[in-house]
Known about the structure:
The structure holds 2 protein chains of 2 kinds. Chain A is mostly helical.
Amino acid sequence: MRTVGLRWLTTVLLLVLAAYFLLPLYWLIVAATKNTGDLINSSPLWFANPQLWTNLGDLFAFGDGIYLRWILNSVIYSGLGAAGATLIAACAGYAMAKCEFRGREALFNVILAGVLLPTTAIGLPLFLLMSDAGLANTYWAVLLPSLVSPFGVYLSRVYAATVPDDVLDAARADGAGEWRIFLTIALKIMSPAMVTIFLFQFIGIWNNYFLPLVMLSDTSLYPLTLGLTSWQGFADREPILQTLVVVGSFVSVIPLIVLSGGLQRFWRAGLTEGSVRE
Amino acid sequence: MIKAYFMVIWPRRLGSPLLSLAAAAMLLVSACGGGADTTGRDPVQLTFWAWVPGMDKAVELFNRTHDDVQVRLDNIPPGPEGGYAKIHAAVLAGDAPCLAQMEFQELPSFLLNAELTDLDPYLTDADRADFQQNTWDLVTYEGGTYAVPQATGPMALYYRADLFDKWGIEVPTTWAEYREAAAKVRAADPDAYVTNFPANDASPFISLAWQAGTPWFDTRGGVWNAKMTSPETLKVADYWQGMIRDGLVKVGPHFAPGWYKDLASGNLVAIPLAQWGEAILAANAPDTAGKWRAAPLPQWEAGGKASASNGGSSTALLRGCEHPREAAEFALWINRDPGSVAMLIESGYGWPAALDGMSSPSLTKPSAFLGGQRTDKLFTEASSQLPRGWVWWPGYDETRQTLNDSFPRALAGEGTFSSALRAAQTQVVEQLREKGLKAQ
């Protein structure tokens, strides 16, 4: 009896939490179908004269289709940034787990400290660096800092430690080079960690605001976050932008949902795999 | 460039290493583009950061009509949403554009870090005479002029003439009458209020305190003297708190969906609002078009003639600009040329600071939203009746934020608006001192 009661309690609690997390998304979906008048005047949680296709058409047509450009930019920053960051973090984590060298722990601790630094805090110093290097207001200005993920290095090291030394030794005995071992054996075992790093980094870059804000001034280089904010600045005067900001936000979360859903399979498997150490 | 007296209020903030860094960066830059000046043919290229709608068209017009100077406009996010942080960063890096959009109240914060260029040397008396004198006050600090005034936000009382007629309410001319009108509105319609008070945004309150007559700061004797708790300001604070306490005024944010909804449905019927707000009302409550009218802002004394300004912007010259003369020329042009001003008015940038702009056709034509009323005389007067002597102070944003936080607390029973102002004043004086300024 007690376990049944407990299960009910858990279920209810989870349902409440799910509703709590899904409500904003639900609102966004409903709001994305409304015209500007209904956005303000109709009930916020139910549909009124749905016109999603009109809104989408307006969204992609406004300002010579600049929104599409922003999506593309966000995909470039997040996709390339996350892929690069994952690879670099995997290399670094593996090296720190499997290679003995002086100052390894000190170096690792420094990187670990980097986890504690919010990206907003380093936005300005990074801008000064990029500006000095003549890279401000280019794709590189956002891409290069996105390649760094201290958390990724940390996670990679934890996972790389689970790669059995015996396997590595056997491979070496068979004459495989260190690169080949890393690429064919270590990376496979570490793949759940890499999926996690990729996902975290992708979402982090996708949602980043301050770094692109200080780095970029050319509208055509903006990612979605910056573009939508600049629209919102005009929204009082051009009310259609209120709708477009909402529809634009809705479209901008779709890739994240798809990505999280698509990678979840690997991810869940990975978390349990990594939790057992032999 | 920096005047001696200036140093009393504005300390030498920049260490010499940073200056030499900036100088080195400038040398490098000019080394790259050195050819341009000697031939004298290539137009001077300037960059301008702004977020004002319609600015792109005005800049286009400038480029079309000028051969010697060409301006590239970057639409950056609005200042309060990160635009200012971006400008600060760019100046610090020596990578800033020559020109930037800047609200009047932000100038001191940029000046504090010596991030602006004095354009006094490039201004003639004729230039100055083309703009309303009191707008120059807002861009002048200790003898230096750091921006060309663009627009102000003279305030008026926007009211629903149809409902006032229906309910038999006279248009209030004093704040005492406004309070009486508020009570009548409540009696006439249980859903309606005269206006709502945005407790989470002190900006309109600060403007109304401006009207009351004692500026929150002056710089007499080379010291930032805080006067946020003058009897005049406290009178405004008590007035609004009393209105809210007695249920005569609603509390809620401005320029938010709920506000638009109340405006559209006739639940807010007489709001003190800056002139640029009219376009926003018209856009967000289109069904009420023709029912509104504008009247002068209510006065504290019967027959008084004091207005207030909310918002307002300028075109500032940033530090490190290599072509300050051309930049000043552009800043004057964009804010003075009839064609440019007309475009900016069209997009609702505010009330022009240029005198000729005030008689621009788009301002003198009857307003359909106001039932055919012409408002050019009203706002020309209002903009000239702005009480002089107001000085924005460095760290305005923090002060505003402090009030944004403490006004709602006061309404929740924690202290009063007056005590919130006292606490905010203590805090701002402390902050100014921490910045190395003399303040009391």
